[in-house]
Structures are given as structure tokens and as C-alpha cells.
Amino acid sequence: MEIVFYLTVAAIGLVFGSFTALLITRIPMGESIVSPPSHCSHCQTKLRVLDLVPLFSWLFLKGRCRYCQAAISIGYPAVEFLTMVLFMGVFLRWGMSAQTVAGWALTIVLVSAAFIDLAEGIIPDIITIPGLALGLAFSFFTIGFFQALGGAVAFLGVLLLVAVISKGGMGGGDIKLAAVIGAFTGLPGAVITLLLSSLLGSVFGVTLILLGKAGRKTPVKFGPFLAVGAYTAFLFTPEIVSWYMGLW
Ligand SMILES: [Zn+2]
Fold first, then answer.
1. With 51 labelled, which of 111, 184, 244, 246 sits at a CA distance of 20 to 30 A?
2. Segment 93-103, tens digit of pLDDT
């Protein structure tokens, strides 16, 4: 019977992956999330239910619009698939619990923020503000409100400090995303996120410099690193903390 749970989680992941892909494509264009209904961006034909099945429609139509044959970006099925995998990871870690539902909400925030940051260099308020509200709301059923508030304020404060010291090396969107992450993970998770994302960002930055693809002054988009760090922290903070303690 367990297979039924996994298939259900996969289906939920794909549906919300589709929603996440919608956020990623529409928010930077300043379009509404609810209207117009999904349509082909090339021929404008309104898509029907069969055209909108996450992942599978794209596969069956071989990446082309059913009506005008225009190529449909692989970004859609890729984001749907990624979201599904991340939803599954949260479920495998936290099982049937409020923590899992909170983790799914955090996943949507992280994936949309990371991809919009990669493409546009910004993390829009329309993702972080509702994300913060969701994180604080979920905390009543998960880590507790004051743990969430503490995580949010502390993480926001640290990145704000970094922004001031580095004179704008940290964007406002990154700072707000940090508050969202802290609200979902609490203080220990925020610390782990900060460590992991700084580590990943440094390794990536140094690699680019060594490859001659960037200079010391090239701005690094921090959002994707925050996202990877936060997702890892949300799943493994207890293990990481006890591993670290074991080193001493
Ligand atoms: Zn079309």
C-alpha cells in the first residue's frame, strides 16, 4: 500500500511543480498568476486539460505546442520534475506531518526564487512576502512561532549586516528570502543554511575565478545557494548538528 502514498506525493509534486513553473515564467513578466488561463505563448491558443498534465503533456507532445508546433521550453517539465523530486525528499524525511506540508511550501518558494534569481537577478517580493507569512503560519503546527520568528529575524539581520559591510554585495531579495527561510527552519536551520550556502557560494565563486570566467568583483547571485542550503537544512539540520558535535 505504501506505493499509493508515493504516487500521491509524486502527483502532488507535479501539480505544484506546474504551479512553480507558472510563477517562474509569469512573475518576471509582471503577469497575473490566475489570468489569463494557460495558453501557448506562441499561438496564444488556450490550453486544454490534456495539454496541461505536468511533465507528461510535454513528453507526449515531444516538447511542441499541439496547435502550432512551436517548441515549448524544457524549463517547464524540468521545474515540474525537480519540484516532484524535492517534494518526495521532504516526504521521505518528515512523513505524513505538518512539517512535510510546510516543507512543500518552502520548496515552492525556494525553487521559484532560485530560478527567477538566475534568470533576472532579482527575488521578487511577491514570492518572499507571502512566503514569510506562510512560514510564520505553519510554525504554529511545526517548530513554534517564536522559534520561527527568531530564525527569521536573526537570518535577516545577519544578511543585512553582510549587505551593509559589503556595500550592496547582498541584494534586498536575498535578505528577504533569508527571513522566509529562517521562519521555516528556525534558528538552528538558519545557521546551517548560512554555513552551507556561504560554503557553496564560495566554492562556486572560486571555481569561476580559477576558470577565468569571473573576476573578484563579479557579483554572485546568492539566491540559488540560499535555496540549496535551506532545502538541505530543512531536511538534515538534526543530523548535521549531531555530526558536528561528534567532531569535538
Ligand atoms: Zn501554440
1. 111
2. 999 999 999 99
Q: Residue 38 Cα, ligand 1 centroid: separation in angstroms?
A: 11
* Distance of CA 115 from the midpoint of ligand 1 (Å): 24
CA of 18 to the centre of ligand 1 (A): 18
- In whole angstroms, how large is the CA radius of gyration of the chain? 19
CA of 74 to the centre of ligand 1 (A): 15
CB atoms within 10 A of CB 110: 29
pTM over 0.90: yes
Query: Helix 172-210 and helix 98-120: axis angle, to 10°?
Result: 60
- Give the residue ranges of DSSP H helices in 33-97: 56-60, 75-94
Q: Tell me how far the alpha carbon of residue 150 lies from the centroid of ligand 1, in angstroms.
A: 48
- Sorted by where each begins, the domain ranges of the chain are 1-96, 123-248
* Interval 55-92: pLDDT, tens: 999 999 999 999 999 999 999 999 999 999 999 999 99
φ/ψ region of 168 (left if φ > 0, alpha if ψ in -120 to 50, else beta) reads left
Q: Which long-range contacts (CB under 8 A, 24 or more apart) does 213-220 make?
A: 219/169
**Residue 114: CB partners within 8 Å, gap ≥ 6?**
223, 224, 226, 227, 228
| pLDDT tens digits along 191-207 | 999 999 999 998 998 89
Total Cβ atoms within 10 A of residue 232: 18
Helix (H) / strand (E) element for 71: namely none
